[in-house]
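The protein record filed here:
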Amino acid sequence: MVENVIAPNPWMLLPFVLLLGMMAFAPSLAGNWWSRHYSKIALGLGAITLGYYLLILQASGRVLHVAHDYVSFIVLIGSLFVVSGGIRIHVKGEATPLANVIFLFVGAVIANFLGTTGASMLLIRPWIRMNKYRVTAHHIVFFIFIVSNVGGCLTPIGDPPLFLGYLQSIPFWWVAEHCWPMWVMGVGILLAIFYVVDRLNFIRATREIREMETGHETWKFDGLANLFFLAVILGAVFINKPIFLREGIMLAAAFGSYFKTEQSVHEANRFHFHPIWEVAILFIGIFATMMPALDWLGANAHGLLGQNPAPGIFYWGTGALSSTLDNAPTYLGFLSALFGTSGANDIGELLSRHSVDLIAISVGAVFFGAATYIGNGPNFMVKAIADHEKIHMPTFLGFVLKFTLPFLLPVLVAVWLIFFHG
């Protein structure tokens, strides 16, 4: 359950806005400067907020609660990142549009067990290799849409906001039970759109190039011993007490995976810790600076959303902020707002009286996280790998204009009309 909110000074929302704004625009406007100083900025802004809560508000309990959520969050995605980095998939070309659709569908399923971060890091390099003779931006963007975001809507492991909801006592299987129709619709429409786009690209690539580039390759899997460590991590998710036992088991599995995996597999995957290190540092700042935003939103939910807001308000509100900020803190913000408007005293009462609203928040956070590079943690990791492979990727605005608006937005509107309209 979300704690009783505090009423912070609205000016204390500024560190949160500054951090997320810089995450959105600094990498493209001042990439070298950002890569050198992002840790100082995230930690510095986080320190300002922590000082305010500890020294001015004297809300140490609130800080400890957020710190626990951060540790649980980063240990989960970090351990999945390490284990997925120890599995090497050799792909077989040529990749036809149908083969690509099957691959993306499998990735959408796997995302619910490895998390969108783990599935993205495991599958993005095989995805690029199997399409290397004709890989373009649409391959990477639809991978972000399906594997890095929408696919992970069925379990708390699947996407960071859902795991944060699980930490707030939402039952583990509640998401799958209530969100599977939206998952089927979202994944299905996106796969259909991708097939049409990829079919046109496939026709333009000559058969001679396809056979020359990929005709000798076969499917092969290395590092399958890491499936054991994956099972350990998934089992640990269900452990709630004593405190940090779950996280300790996950870390032990990650260490075991890293040292058990042959160096040749890590080298072939070009595995290194920089992506997860960057996410860990940035999310220290996000978790710290988001406290005033969450508390202010909870305290002012009635004025902002009105009395008994419709599910569509939660869907579009969560979605709009998830696409421009980050979907994990946005989810928590609207969960706090739902408590504020509903008057529910605990999560059980909330689920019984406002389940449709919570479904709208969950789906909005996960689906809209695909709308920009910064909507969800794996998006930027996938883009960084694509850039390293010399794939011409769209800019921040290019991503939105060329892909989000024409391809993703119709899916989001269709989900709203069928499940949350009225």
Notes: The chain is about 75% helix and 0% strand.
